[in-house]
Each structure stands twice: as structure tokens, then as C-alpha cells.
Amino acid sequence: MRVRAYVLGNGGTNCFLIWDEASLEAALIDPGAASQKVEEDISANGLDLKYVLLTHGHGDHIGGVEQALAAHPSAVLAAGEGEAGLLADAIWNASRDILGRSMTLTAELLLKEGDEVRLGELSLKVLETPGHTPGGISFYTTAWDPGLAEGPYSGTVFTGDALFRASVGRTDFRGGDFVQLEDSIRRKLFTLPNDTLVLPGHMGATTIGYERAHNPFVGD
Predict the structure, then answer these.
(1) Among 65, 47, 89, CA closest to 9
(2) Contact, 119 vs 27, CB < 8 A?
(3) To 5 degrees, how large is the angle CA 120–CA 123–CA 125?
(4) Which of 149, 153, 44, 65 is nearest to 107 (CA)?
């Protein structure tokens, strides 16, 4: 697996371009704003963008979706099945406040717990991790990119705004629920191996083991 990381938009959202090295099939996770650099990297590496994947539908994570889909018409927009209502409601997804324009989306593919998104031989397993939003999901794979972070790691999980380094996502937005988020982290994310690399929606990378030991909101 190869991974390129970008910080996009005024919300400082982490966007990830990931691909399978053999097939060159790729996915773009949480494009918070349009990015020429992303498009240049797709072209330079000869990638076939199969999916635009959303961990959740807040405006700072969706601002570049329309541009990505326009540039790659065959790419499929995918999000958690519980996120459809938020994506369709410009007030709920806070797009006007965050982006300065109202934005609604309809995901072509709605994902649920245990689903897999395949890029060639690379498999991303869907983990339902609601709490920050009702339909938030994370993507887990047993692969990792040694060019992105020193390892070794047993895998990688893209957590969106569920889990950050020494923090968690806000739950004071409409549809947020801290009890639900804590349960998601403990039952879904903290059951992954300690040496799993965590690539969150904001701020820097961390590991499951570090968060279990040190996260003041949900740590052991």
C-alpha cells in the first residue's frame, strides 16, 4: 500500500490518497477541499481512482468531493449508511459555515460494519465508529506504507474525526453523542493491535497502543 497525505481546506483536514502498488487502483479519503497536488499525484503515479471515501460528512471533509468526482467520473462516492441524512442536509453538515457555501451529496455506495472496499489486492475493512456523527466510519487495513511513517506497524486505520492523537472528535454538533463515540473507540478501535498506525482526520498520526495508554478521554 502507498499513501500520500495532504492537509486541505481552512479546517486543516487530513486527506489521504491510497493505492495498491500492483494494480494502481486508488481511493481518496476525505477530500476537504479541491487540490491540484492530489490530481498531480494521481496523474504522476498513473493511478485509477476507484473511490472517494468519506469517514463522515461534515463540510471540512467533503469540500473537494465534487471536484474529485468531476475529474474522475467513474469513481464511486462511498460513505457510511448512517451518514446519508447528514450528507443530504446542508445545515446539518455545516457546509455553509465551514465552506461558505451550501453543499449536499448523495453517496452511490453506502457502507456498513464489515464491508470491504477493495483496491486490487488491498482490502479496507469498514468499522462503524459513530459518535462524532451518526454514521461515522473508519477504514482498517493490515497494510501500511513504510514511506509515510517509521514502523513496523501491523496495519493502518483511517479514523476521520473519531479518534485523534490524545483527543477525540467533538460531540457537541447536531447528531453527536459522546457515550456512543466512547463505545465506538473502545469496542472497535481499541480492539485493533497496539501497533496499528492511526491516521486521523486532523493533527498528526498516532498508534492504537499510544491512545489506549495516554488518551485522556478514553485511555485505559
Answers:
(1) 65
(2) yes
(3) 155
(4) 65
Residue written as grid cell 465534487: 66
Residue range 134-150, pLDDT digits in tens: 999 999 999 999 999 88
pLDDT tens-digit series, residues 163-184:
999 999 999 999 999 999 999 9
Lookup result for grid cell 485523534? 164
Q: What angle do CA 26, 31, 35 make, to 5 degrees?
A: 90
**Hey, is 220 helix, strand or coil?**
coil
Tell me which amino acid residue 155 is: G
Peptide bond into 152 cis (omega under 30): yes
* Burial of residue 20, with CB atoms counted within 10 A of its CB: 0-12 exposed, 13-18 middle, 19 or more buried: buried
Joined together, the cell numbers standing for residue 49 give 481512482
Average pLDDT over residues 44-61: 98
pLDDT, residue 165, reads: 97
In this structure, how many other beta carbons lie within 10 angstroms of the beta carbon of residue 162?
Answer: 28
Give the position of cell 486521523.
Answer: 200
Q: Above pLDDT 70, what percent of the chain?
A: 100
Strands (E) located in 66-195: 76-80, 109-111, 116-119, 122-128, 137-141, 155-160, 163-164, 167-168
Q: State whether CATH 3.60.15.10 applies to domain 2-214.
A: yes
Nearest to 63 by CA among 133, 112, 12, 126: 12
Residue 211 near residue 159 (C-beta atoms within 8 A): no
The β-bridge relationship of strands 116-119 and 122-128 is: antiparallel
In one-letter notation, the amino acid at residue 175 is G
